[in-house]
Design goal:
Helix content is 41%, strand content 21%. The protein is α/β, with parallel strands linked by helices. The protein has one domain: NAD(P)-binding Rossmann-like Domain (Rossmann fold, 3-Layer(aba) Sandwich), CATH 3.40.50.720.
């Protein structure tokens, strides 16, 4: 580990950060000027925001909390969309980004995939990570858009050691500090899980040994 990174900063990089790096850099082939949409304000989404801005991208982030969206703007988000007050957030993100997202980091899964497809630009790449929004209640109503837009859908589960080494070097060089919401001592691990389950956090929740 580089001396510039503390142990607490390194831990989120090896989990959420690595997943976001894989989605954006390896799969998304991100470059300066790209438009990125990332869903929510959990660890992966916030890491994706930071990595995308490091590469010179324009970033849109979603949340049901205006307070979290304001915090995301302070971290560099160019566009924010409240999906609770704007149920058609996919279309809103498409318009706000001026023609859709080149890369969508979908942390919610099947239930949000239709709107991620709607938000994607032609030739866009959608990284599907997790299933925080639960199972889909219906099929993809816009299935044809995958073909019509020539979209790529990719499942992402963390990444390789080489990817992590590249991320750690980039984070140290660009002075990226992973967003840590709270750190619990090991004796309070049950409380940490309860806090995480409430969904009020932004970034990562850590348990310190």
């Amino acid at each position: 580990m580089p001396d510039a990174l503390s142990d607490q900063q390194a831990v989120p990089l090896s989990a959420a950060g690595l997943t976001a790096w894989n989605a954006l850099v390896e799969i998304g082939r991100i470059k300066a000027g790209d438009r990125v949409l990332t869903l929510g304000t959990g660890g992966v989404s916030i890491a994706a925001l930071q990595i995308a801005k490091m590469h010179g991208a324009k970033v849109c982030i979603t949340s049901s909390s205006d307070e979290k969206l304001e915090a995301a703007r302070k971290l560099g988000a160019d566009v924010t969309v409240n999906y609770r007050t704007n149920p058609q957030w996919g279309a809103a993100a498409f318009e706000a980004l001026g023609g859709g997202a080149d890369i969508v980091v979908d942390t919610a899964g099947q239930a949000t995939l239709p709107q991620s497809i709607a938000a994607a630009a032609p030739l866009g790449r959608i990284a599907i990570i997790g299933a925080l929004a639960g199972a889909a209640t219906e099929g993809l109503p816009n299935f044809g858009s995958i073909i019509g837009k020539n979209l790529g859908l990719h499942g992402v589960a963390a990444g390789s050691r080489d990817m992590l080494c590249a991320l750690v070097s980039a984070a140290a060089e660009n002075q990226i500090e992973p967003v840590i919401d709270r750190v619990f001592p090991f004796e309070q691990t049950p409380e940490a899980y309860a806090y995480l389950e409430k969904g009020g956090h932004m970034g990562k929740v850590l348990v310190e040994l």
